[in-house]
# Entry
Amino acid sequence: MRGHAYQLPSDVYRELEAQILEALTSADLQQLGYLLGEHDLKIELLSGEWRVLFDETEDDYFQVIDFEQRRARMAVSPDELADFVQLLRNGERQRRWAPISFGLAELTDALPVGVDLVGVVFVEESDDWQWVEQTHEIIAIRPEVFSLLEPHMRKLIEIGDHAALARLAGDHCEGAIEFAQVRWDRLMDDIRKHEPELLKVIHNCVALPVDYKSVREALDKVANPQVQPSLDAWLRVHADVGQYALYFRDRARERD
# Structure
């Protein structure tokens, strides 16, 4: 899931602060929408952006994170804004976050510096994205991106939220190979026959960048262009560009 950052004028935030904090704990998105009302700024944060941001600020700002309910919420009051903006503008942090920074960069530029003119409320997106039918995929993630996302990917694997995991990987991927069901089934059959060691990697969901060469070589052996044209094309054109982490998206996991 992704998130949204809403900017509220300081007088509005202060007037509603008690209600906002209570709603962040228990209200659904529709109720929160009614409470937040009109806002001057709404910025979308990709799946990895809000996770990294929340992880590094969990001791500093009011947060509500519930993985089972897919809730991810945070409030920064006007009194806390100057410190929050300073955190976002920290040069070392910006360099570290640069590989995944899209909405965060926009948010950093948009927030006023050294003043208490606004409060900021972070709220998760609606769950509409879950109802769009997707395909099986092999998703390539650059090493510098993977180093930021890996702890969050491992957490989602641990709790079994493979839909959110696919959303996270897809938001920050370098490229993806899609497979219709019949081609995914054929790929699994061919791997089982010719490269059975690769099945363990696929079962574990993620192949590390350090293992990329061996995984790529195994995929080369089952990438028959007559049967797997998308896989064959990706391996020929993109496989040697980087040393990627690979996420294997098996849609069956998301239906469990």
